[in-house]
UniProtKB/TrEMBL annotation:
Signal peptide positions (record): 1-20
Organism lineage string: Bacteria, Pseudomonadati, Pseudomonadota, Alphaproteobacteria, Hyphomicrobiales
Presence of keyword Signal: yes
Biological process per Gene Ontology, one example term: peptidoglycan catabolic process
Organism: Bradyrhizobium canariense
Name used for this protein in its record: Lytic murein transglycosylase
Ranges where the Transglycosylase SLT domain occurs: 27-235
PANTHER family: LYTIC MUREIN TRANSGLYCOSYLASE, MEMBRANE-BOUND LYTIC MUREIN TRANSGLYCOSYLASE B
GO MF annotations in UniProt: peptidoglycan lytic transglycosylase activity
Length: 267
């Protein structure tokens, strides 16, 4: 997923305030400005103080971000062979069986087929058992927001991350993610977490790190909201394939989702 994160970032930009903090310059001054923006956006002083207390720049995040290449050098066949093997297919089929009742409820509510959801889940984090990232999201996003290349984008993501804590969805200690701030078992950016997150287990919060019902329902909600239709084709050129652009702009990745989904149901 990390290879595609720029495409995802551009597809999930949320509105940023007109008083957006100035990028670059003194880091502590930037944090103070972001704190004021967060308070104006309705984040409590307690959450702001806890989140920004002692925050520092993460140069490893900046170095990783600047090393990224945003083009593909592999064909679809080469790429899919590295992502969809027999082991992952067999595990995915087991997940379809294990979560059959849950997936039926999600299909009924959101109209997204179970194999698409399980394919995304498997590709992103090996069904929640793989790497969900180990970086503090606030530090990561503050670092990227301070950098002037895509400052407004990451300022928006930073405010969304603070709202995740404000809403009580995740405590700050669990706000851990990848190199662009992606969170949870299907790697939602904070803005998507806020926009599409669903409390499907009924515990009063959206937990995309630990709750499989919330993870799969939120993924379905994202696709449904962007026009995915149950029973329609999802191959390249279809309306459903276009609906998946909100998940990832990269054609090769969306083709891999479709291929994996077909393998899961024996097509």
């Amino acid at each position: 997923m990390r290879k595609f994160y720029l495409a995802i970032l551009f597809s999930t930009v949320i509105a940023t305030p007109s008083f957006a903090a100035r990028c670059g310059g003194d880091f502590n001054s930037f944090v103070a400005s972001m704190s004021a923006d967060a308070q104006a956006a309705g984040v409590s002083q307690a959450v702001i103080s806890q989140a920004f207390g002692g925050v520092t720049q993460d140069m490893a995040v900046l170095n990783f971000d600047r090393r990224q290449r945003y083009t593909f050098n592999k064909t679809f066949e080469q790429y899919v062979s590295t992502r969809v093997g027999s082991g992952r297919i067999n595990t995915g089929r087991a997940m379809l069986q294990r979560n059959a009742a849950l997936l039926s409820r999600i299909e009924a509510r959101f109209g997204v087929p179970r194999q698409i959801l399980v394919a995304i889940w498997g590709l992103e984090t090996d069904f929640g058992h793989g790497d969900m990232g180990k970086l503090p999201v606030i530090r990561t996003l503050t670092t990227l927001a301070h950098d002037c290349r895509r400052s407004e984008l990451f300022q928006g993501e930073l405010l969304a991350a603070l709202k995740i804590v404000q809403r009580g969805d995740l405590p700050l200690r669990d706000l851990i993610g990848a190199y662009a701030g992606e969170i949870g078992q299907t790697q939602f950016l904070p803005s998507s977490y806020i926009k599409y997150g669903v409390d499907f287990d009924g515990d009063g919060r959206v937990d995309l790190r630990h709750s499989v019902p919330d993870v799969l329902a939120s993924t379905a909600n994202l696709l449904h909201t962007n026009g995915f239709k149950m029973g329609a084709p999802y191959g390249e050129g279809s309306e459903n394939f276009e609906a998946m652009r909100e998940w990832n702009h990269a054609t090769i990745y969306r083709k891999t989702i479709g291929y994996f989904a077909d393998q899961l149901v024996g097509r």
